[in-house]
Amino acid sequence: MLASPSELRHVTKAATDGPSLVVGAEAVSLSYPDHGNDACHAIEEASFWFQHRNECSSHIIAKRLQDGVFLDVGGGNGSTAQSLVAAGIDCWLIEPNPAGCSNARDRGIQTIIQANLDALCFPTDPVAGVGLFDVIEHIEDTSELLSEAYRITSPNGTLAVTVPAIPWLWPTEDEYAGHFRRYTRQTLWQDLTSVGFEVELTQYLFGPLALPLLVCRSIPSRIGIRRGGNWKTAAREHGVDDGWSASTVRRLLQRERKRLKRNRWPLLGTTCIAIARKPARYKDD
Fold this sequence. Notes:
This protein is of the alpha/beta class and about 280 residues long. The chain has a single domain (about 5-275), classed as Vaccinia Virus protein VP39 (Rossmann fold, 3-Layer(aba) Sandwich), CATH 3.40.50.150. The protein is about 40% helix and about 15% strand. It is built from eleven helices and seven strands. Strands 3-2-1-4-5-7-6 form a seven-stranded mixed sheet, sandwiched between helices. It is globular, with a radius of gyration of 18 Å. The relative contact order is 0.16. Mean pLDDT is about 85; it is low at about 15-20 and about 25-30.
């Protein structure tokens, strides 16, 4: 049964005064670069990549989500949560990193919980949905987190996931970012169904970036002429300088968004998105 926001706040035993709800907890040990939250925060507002992922995710989720609280788990600095709230979704940010919580608070996110998901001890079935936006590739064994997401999602509730796509697109930037893997539609489907979810959609995003990533990152990484990554390079590649190449990519991604609204998806892309649902009738183990 879905819990109301006030009931969930009572479960977390946190104060509700002020613009944010924060539960103190130790940061989880994830495969993620030091100062990654602050580095992302510096580029998110101007990045065509974050804009496209957030707009596509929000559009797809808003059409499928039932009323209730949606948890953006591992939501970093709150850029996706901000987009979800703008789409009319009651989104709470769950983020173990203090820097991410602070940045999200500065963004105006109303409900921020600094904790690992399993540390909150939510009852079974209280939330309308869970989002894991570029999270599970940072976790070596995803089964525990996905199982917890399944447990707390209400029957007929929604799980939304985005991950880096296509294993042969692996560049050294994936290692620098702390990724364990890149996914295909099939391998993502397998991970989600293995814990009980019924997958409604698995598709690729960022079709225009697949070939440039292969040529400019993946192949140079494989032959040893490209090493590691750094945030200054990331800022340029995310289009923060808004040069001619960034403007071209923005126009191509805008066209992709228009096609997605007509349910026309790219055959390949650098990100895979999945929407899954917890069955309306299920058996507890």
